[in-house]
Design brief:
The structure is a homotetramer. Chain A has two domains: 93 residues, Alpha-Beta Plaits; 202 residues, Rossmann fold. The longest helix of chain A is centred in the last third of the chain and has 24 residues. Chain A is α/β, with parallel strands linked by helices. Chain A is built from eight helices and 14 strands. In chain A, 32% of the residues lie in helices and 29% in strands. Chains A and C meet through helix 1 and strand 3 of A and helix 1 and strand 3 of C.
Chain lengths: 302, 302, 302, 302
């Protein structure tokens, strides 16, 4: 992660997240640890899940209120976390370090344009490392934003030579992405199903936008399915990619009203507004460490 | 239909609906017919569906602008409609006649209370003929509103004697409902699956509220299903009842946001707000002749 | 407060709220206090306001996890709270005690019907002590729900004898309400402006529903104002009553879409749906101690 | 207007709009005129306003169903329209002709990026003639999209020389815009108040996005005003520009939920999502001839 040059010391924060089996005293131990070090908590979320017996928290501390840097905080907080058992998952990040993102696209540019705009205005403070396109039509606008664009064509699924070419394309994709070790790999209407080994390699980092209100209309052509069923709202779902198609943990969803006058083409056009928004929100929350995954569900501290 | 005593002549309207195979000149012929009679159109909706090649319209005319009563309008408009082919469906209603409604309930009273309140305030100008309850717990409040309540217990599905008792219960239900020949039979959380012959008998009049955003979570315990999937919105669907469970033409849907902190019980409670609203909206539109059914879809002129 | 007979011991919770000038270590001290007593926190909200330098928290603890009853918790927590300075405000309530509510109404029944329905279904677990009506038209339905109804007519504002009668009516109202010492006095479309002394007496407990999206359309006939301006959404606002008309701390707001086809009468009818919902939500949050007031703003831990 | 090269003849439509004093027979005369020429109506909206006694319609006809071109349609429809009186306003446009748009911006790029993306994806089928910027920071991205960018600095309001420079800047702006005779002049966060003569010259074509839910928070710094009042929703309003600041006819509005945790900076960031959407919707409706203005209100046929 590169330092964010425009974040002054007194606006930097450390973000701590932790999940572990629930018991009494967790909040007290974390709060006590921070208070002993002089830490000023500016934002805190807690969730105790009665169904799973699991505890989740996210805390934001003013960097300048602590007498040590992020590495030492990580070491010390790791010791606290260790006390909550072997299953505990935790993380400490520094908002003064800009996180890396790689986007995967094909031909539909609406999510790409939206994210480029958000990066350009500073609204989404990330380091956009690269865009990889299954087609090359979006390359010019990506480069105009000063971001590297790589064209990796994916032949349609098939046997023999076609299968080999497809496997090679995924290998190229993986190499291009992993070279940046990004905090998020965003399938911004990528339209290719990732092979299981990529789902594993990017688990918890690969984020997809699906153009329906899941679990309705899984798979291909969801707007056609929605039109055929005559629903009165269409939606979009931002979720982590898993090997189980369109069934990964949901980060965010939203809907938009349609009516009998909307053709499939109208739904496609109108649905883009909600796809853009839902992906942008989900990605932001992911990058702000607001999303904690447990099993196939998420806790989102908004 | 009983006359609505509080609708003065100059606020009465005639509502004409028609659907037929689309062609040029339909609007002109209907509009010409009305104009020739001096009819003042105050509201008009048109829909031409390119996918099915079907045309739909709803027109609202000031009753006092026409020189004849509703019966003669029906006869004359029927002649116009006949010109659009044998498949044409049409209807003429008079807003000066209050429509009849029968409600079917079990134990959950939130939709019932809401509809009783809307009738009491005059917001839903209907003639509430009766409420039939699978249980009797809601009888007192129904009677306090001056509406007859009938208790018809439905044994759970089963074989032999149980099956016979269930068949008899549905026969009782049908008799109680059909005695009023209502324009709407509302399953306000009735929780019983209507047998196919009742679905046929009440086709286009039986309205159900399902507590999910269909087609997600068809069948029983939809909030449990939604909780297990970790969706970020829950919904409700108002639809016409058909023999195909939860698959009839959708009239209206809406959603409400939930998050990781919501238990199934929270979803049940919060979902009620959206069930109430969606049912009340769908029922109102049905009673105002705003809903035209074609195949398994609806055209809703809002 | 009367005990809630249907809340088993293991589902009872204590709700602690506190606001005070922000500093480091508050969370740690509260969490430490609870952890030392074995308290199991099931829900916790924190807010640190950089603009005012003020801190707010709401914590929900399982009653059975603590070795003492609510009175002793109050005493002990009061000692902790005292350590945060003289301006600190705090409260401890027991969800096993049902809170008292008095409703004030006039002629429009939509909010009343909605709240009666929510109480009847158990959705709003309150003790509905009484309804006071400026008119008596809603008395029958209130009594059908087993709730006392008092008719206190309010003459329109004026001088001399009329002024005296109005003052006497407010004195009667105050006596009727204060006899129950309710946790909430709900102006469910009461349509009378409370005199300053009642605003003071019921500060933080008197809740009004205003039928516009404040601060738009303050005062009388907001739907007429909205129609004249041609807005595309109308709204409702639930707020605490203060001596400054329609300017008290806002608890909740929501909106509903309207269009050019909606007359003022349509807006009135459609707006009721949003008034009902916004009032019910705001009242629930107030009764669940989710609303903390600071100056003219609220912190709402949803 | 330039022809749209990618619209095949059989997908072209003619859009007719008309408003006039209401009377019986208008629908019949328009429908009869179209039917006599073989016109196939695919979309039709009617509105009869009881408050003003005015009638509004928008009709969409398949171009290939008529035996004449748009110019002859205009002439013939103009004769029909003349029969409805001298106050009648009407228009006929051809969806095969791409409409021209000029954007005015300053430094905030979120609306600009959004509109550029919509044009690039073909979602907003316009001819983007030019962007004029009060500052030049957004020039590079505009030019990367192949659109001319003109930098016209506007000194702040003042007397003497400053006043003169400002007047000259507005004259330059007018010349740059009028050179394209655009169907829409979009103030995409332009942050300058247009002088009355420009409001008049561009009446019904100049479209502004205001970052509040008007009429709340007119004027400068609306998010600061919203934060101070503690509202629970913030909004955006797309309206026609008139000489009366922020008081022109409203085309579209929408809102987004905020809470106590949102600072003014958060509101600014989150509000952008709603500004983008509301402006894009309003502009689309304007360009599709869906917006008819009457007095200070709009009829929007969606």
């Amino acid at each position: 992660m590169a330092p964010v040059p425009d974040v002054p010391r007194d606006e930097r924060h450390f973000v701590l997240t932790l999940s572990c089996p629930d018991t009494t005293g967790i909040v007290a131990r974390i709060a006590g640890f921070l208070a002993d070090a002089g830490g000023w908590i500016v934002e805190a979320g807690y969730h105790s899940d009665p169904a799973t017996g699991w505890f989740f928290t996210r805390q934001v501390v003013r960097a300048e209120s602590l007498p040590f840097a992020v590495d030492e905080l990580r070491e010390r907080f790791g010791q606290v976390a260790a006390g909550f058992g072997a299953e505990t998952q935790w993380q400490v990040t520094d908002t003064g370090e800009r996180k890396g993102v790689v986007l995967l696209v094909t031909a539909e540019g609406h999510c790409l344009h939206d994210l480029l705009g958000r990066v350009a205005t500073g609204e989404l403070p990330v380091r956009l490392d690269a865009v990889v396109g299954n087609q090359d039509g979006l390359g010019d606008i990506v480069r105009a934003h000063g971001v590297p664009f790589h064209h990796v064509p994916f032949p349609p699924p098939g046997n023999g030579r076609r299968h080999g070419a497809r496997t090679a394309a995924f290998a190229d994709l993986r190499e291009l992405v992993d070279a940046h070790d990004p905090e998020a790999v965003v399938l911004a209407r990528f339209m290719q199903i990732l092979p299981p080994e990529l789902c594993r390699a990017w688990a918890g980092r690969a984020i997809n936008i699906h153009h329906s209100f899941l679990p309705s209309f899984v798979g291909a052509r969801p707007y056609h399915q929605a039109h055929a069923r005559g629903v009165k709202l269409i939606g979009a779902t931002c979720h982590y990619v898993t090997a189980d198609l369109d069934a990964g943990p949901i980060i965010e969803q939203d809907v938009i009203r349609v009516d009998h006058g909307d053709t499939v083409a109208d739904m496609v056009r109108r649905g883009r507004d909600i796809e853009r928004l839902v992906l942008a929100r989900g990605l932001r929350w992911h990058l702000e460490d607001r999303v904690l995954v447990h099993g196939n569900k998420t806790v989102v501290f908004r």
